[in-house]
Amino acid sequence: MSDENEIEIDADDIERRMDGALAALRTEFASLRTGRASAAMLEPVMVDAYGANTPINQVATVNVPEPRMITISVWDKSLVGKVEKAIRSSGLGINPVVDGTLLRLPIPELNEERRRELTKVAGQYAEQARVAIRNVRRDGMDQIKKAKAQGMSEDDQKLWHDEIQAMTDAAIKKVDTALETKQAEIMQV
């Protein structure tokens, strides 16, 4: 077969999409409470500001002055109540203490039952990432099937199949490692 007729599988795109699934997983893990204060906990919280849902970090400065405390300094005094309401209704289980335009969020110690619930949630996030990676793998295998229809040799098909499977296995291993790390962090007292 000549070089001009050679069919290419976009391995870089497949790898990039698998890495994207891992990045999304890390973002979801960052939002899980571990008993330690983290500004990332507030990333999913949206504030109804100026007629639009806005991330909390776009209406206030978020700081972590100590391991069990988050402070939020709201820039616009009229939004303090809305920021407080958004945090209370976010499901994080944190009750803000309002002091002017400053909100203090004391992070309570997690009990054993809550820790177990959070490890299950982390497991669900990891499974979603695995499914996303498997979907990318399936797309790669579909590319191989199309290339086969266009005349790709069986040897090339086998090589691509093995490469895509190796990328999938490596990505799934990274998900499993990230999950183990997060679960250990959650269960740490």
Looking at CATH, the homologous superfamily of the largest domain is Ribosome-recycling factor
CATH architecture verdict of the largest domain:
Orthogonal Bundle
**SSE arrangement, N to C:** HEEEEHEEHH
**Which structural class is indicated by helix and strand composition?**
alpha+beta
Helix content: 40-55%
What fraction of residues sit in β-strands? 15-25%
Low-confidence stretches: 1-5
What is the number of independent domains? 2
Q: Kindly state the number of beta strands.
A: 6
Q: And the CATH topology of the largest domain?
A: Topoisomerase I, Chain A, domain 4
Largest sheet: 4 strands, antiparallel
Structure description:
This protein has 2 domains: 10-29 and 111-187, Topoisomerase I, Chain A, domain 4 (Orthogonal Bundle); 36-106, Gyrase A, domain 2. The protein has helices spanning 11-30, 80-88, 112-149, 154-187, and strands at residues 46-49, 52-55, 60-66, 69-74, 97-99, 102-106. The protein contains 4 helices and 6 strands, in the order H-E-E-E-E-H-E-E-H-H. InterPro entries: Ribosome_recyc_fac, Ribosome_recyc_fac_dom, RRF_sf. This is Ribosome-recycling factor. Belongs to the RRF family.
